[in-house]
């Protein structure tokens, strides 16, 4: 603790490390620990009982947070022909096909979400090593490979606060739920939507308890443990 700054040590003093807090209490405490000079991101961290080595235990999905994540979302759409006009009219920040593929190969990564029409997926495959490791590769399972008529909906979802959750190599899930400047009820709404989607995405291959531990944390703050049973019971009404 001696190596930590005064602000961090003060934040730790607000938390009882022996207590697993109710979600609403954890949100309140996490907001109170976010004392940096910038608007810190509030993140959810889950340890699951899923084993990412097995295909029937992979966890992956999306949730559209009702209050967004607190930052502008830049959307890129891989499409061609009439679909380009549809994408531009729907508010896409970048639209194109082979030209965008070339720009990305040359190092362009100035976007947060990429969407593609099925006819271009064969060409986009060459970007797998670049986009895949950053979670930017269009994927049918996450609703980012869509028919031209669905482009406006996909762009709207992305702009409103679409977040992707997925299991990492160690069985953990890390997802932002908003900013420290959000009201507590806004963070709770986002947390509820996210947890509801994650619980519903539980793979059939997972045996026993799905969510093993759960924490909220601000960018520069300590983690706050949450009661797993009360967290898992959160549902969108």
Number of strands: 9
Identify the overall geometry: globular
What's the gyration radius in Å?
Answer: 19 Å
Q: Helix segment count?
A: 9
Average pLDDT figure? 93
Distance between the termini: 42 Å
Give the biggest sheet.
Answer: 4 strands, antiparallel
Amount of beta strand: 15-25%
Amount of helix: 25-40%
* Spatial strand sequence of the major β-sheet: 7-1-8-9
Given as residue ranges, the uncertain stretches (5+ residues, pLDDT < 50) are none
Structure characterization notes:
This protein has 237 residues and is an alpha/beta fold. The chain has helices at 6-12, 23-33, 82-89, 98-105, 121-124, 128-131, 151-161, 184-200, 228-232, and strands at 41-48, 60-64, 75-78, 94-96, 113-116, 162-166, 172-179, 211-218, 223-225. It is globular. The protein starts with 5 loop residues before the first helix and ends in a 5-residue tail after the last helix. The mean pLDDT is 93.
